[in-house]
Amino acid sequence: MPDSASAQSAPGMDRRRLLGAALFGAAALTGSVAGATTARAATSASVPPSSAPVTEERARAVVVGTGFGGGVTALRLAQAGVTTLVLERGRRWPTGPDATTFCRFATMDNRSAWLTDHSVIPGVDKTWTPYTGVLEAVAGDGMTAMCGAAVGGGSIMYHGMTLQPAKEDFAASIPVAAGLYDDLDRWAYPTVARALGISTIPYDVLASDPYASSRLFESTAPAAGLTPFHVPLPIDWSYVRGELYGQYDATYTTSDIAFGVNNGGKHSIDVTYLAQAESTGLVEVAPLNVVRDIALDANRRWVLSVDRIDTGGNVQEKKRIVADAVFLNAGSPGTTRLLVKSRAKGLTPDLPDAIGTQWGNNGDRIYAWIGMDGDIGTQQGGPACVGGRVPDSAIPLTVVHAGSPIQQPGVKAMSVIGFGLVEAAGTWAYDADTDDAVLTWPSSGDAALQQLIAARMRALAQAGGGMMIDTNAEAPSTWHALGGVPMGDAVDLHGRVLGHHGLYVLDGARIPGSTGACNPSMTIAALAEHSMAAIVRQDVGRVF
């Protein structure tokens, strides 16, 4: 059988139709994107700064961002008795059975994208009025990074893969933190698992009709040299069963979850860590607050320049927030851009030279498996519930299957995604013309890993029939951006920015490039748990 190939290998099918079918499924897992340059340019507010009022606020602690690092940080500060302001650029997205909170693939609209006038999904030719939607595409040289923009961060639209790396793989990804693993394994990873309520797919759900493609992947994996496993997920499976029994409109069972899960039942950060933090009465979450700059004032307090916007991106208020401590959790691109800007503009003296370095894509690669021999059914259930590992791989890697929310007539297609360890070779540099930091990613950073992933994809096609198409060959993208403010060189093992009291980085920006052949979410949260335990013990009442 052909291995990875061009569309011409599929009789009677043009390249655009084939890739369209493939990319719909791929985008549902990882946000494979188009039009990212425009997406970055469109994030500026449309109201001139002089027309918006300016207010000043004082805070003891400010958390920037509400994803896995931010949610953990906010809760642990609150439990330590620290009044905390949490700033989030996105809006809240409440869900529930048969809710219409998020747009669906078939009726995609401006809720899908962060302040762009067009879709960022390949093959979707739609324009609209810009809106504070859930996904931002940050375009760089050689790589596009997809970033969540919502209360709950990337936990809103990710599939939910909650994977703990093996000790040796963790050490290979983050050598400077290798000594932390035993503590993480003993209590931090289990704490995250309990907070998110993770479990694997029940066998009755996996045996149902919508999960035929998952069963096909699982049965084919051993012949391709993969050891199959069931992915731990933060899902209340009663909601999935409700769809199977016709109680709810299909969402999970059609994998129509790329922009968020309408039916609820997903234990995302907004309904777990953040909800618990807010329940203390000590945490205020402020949506639609965009942090533009961070500076250190003459009194060595942290000053945040913030725009409060409406859902069209128009500035309603400009804020100057002065804080004793700032915890940056805006995601790898967001946190890195803020600090690269702060250093380049002289807003914070003596920031570490390593800021803007050691960035990576977690090895993400999205393939479309086309024309396989087995039955994949008429719809593909999610989230991504089955995967495979390669024992004794020269570079640790993982392969998972994600269902496609759109089935193209006459095309048997399913998405298969690989990721693993990479060289953290990416860098960010300040661009004065746009007042932003820009990513550069050399293809050499993950070249060796991609050869191994490609070989495994060929093995799957050989074992199960059909062909594999590398959908990232011409436009590499990642949903798992990591690094830019690396541990050891820019922050210490507990996220303290070197040489700067009261400034912390507790998100994926401090992880150099990859997380042990796993989705990064669980490791980001576990490291945040571990770091906050030390910060509460050592810094609360002393540094802030």
From TrEMBL:
Biological process per Gene Ontology, one example term: cholesterol metabolic process
Q: Under which EC number(s) is this enzyme classified?
A: 1.1.3.6, 5.3.3.1
The molecular function terms of the Gene Ontology recorded here are: cholesterol oxidase activity; steroid Delta-isomerase activity
Q: Where is the Glucose-methanol-choline oxidoreductase C-terminal domain?
A: 473-528
Instruction: Write down a Pfam family by its short name.
Output: GMC_oxred_C
Cofactor(s) the record lists = FAD
Q: In which pathway does it act?
A: Steroid metabolism; cholesterol degradation
Q: Which PROSITE patterns match?
A: TAT
Q: Which UniProt keywords apply?
A: Cholesterol metabolism, FAD, Flavoprotein, Isomerase, Lipid metabolism, Oxidoreductase, Steroid metabolism, Sterol metabolism
| SUPFAM superfamilies in alphabetical order | FAD-linked reductases, C-terminal domain, FAD/NAD(P)-binding domain
Family the UniProt entry places it in: Belongs to the GMC oxidoreductase family.
Quote the protein name from its UniProt record.
Cholesterol oxidase
Tell me the organism: Streptomyces fuscichromogenes
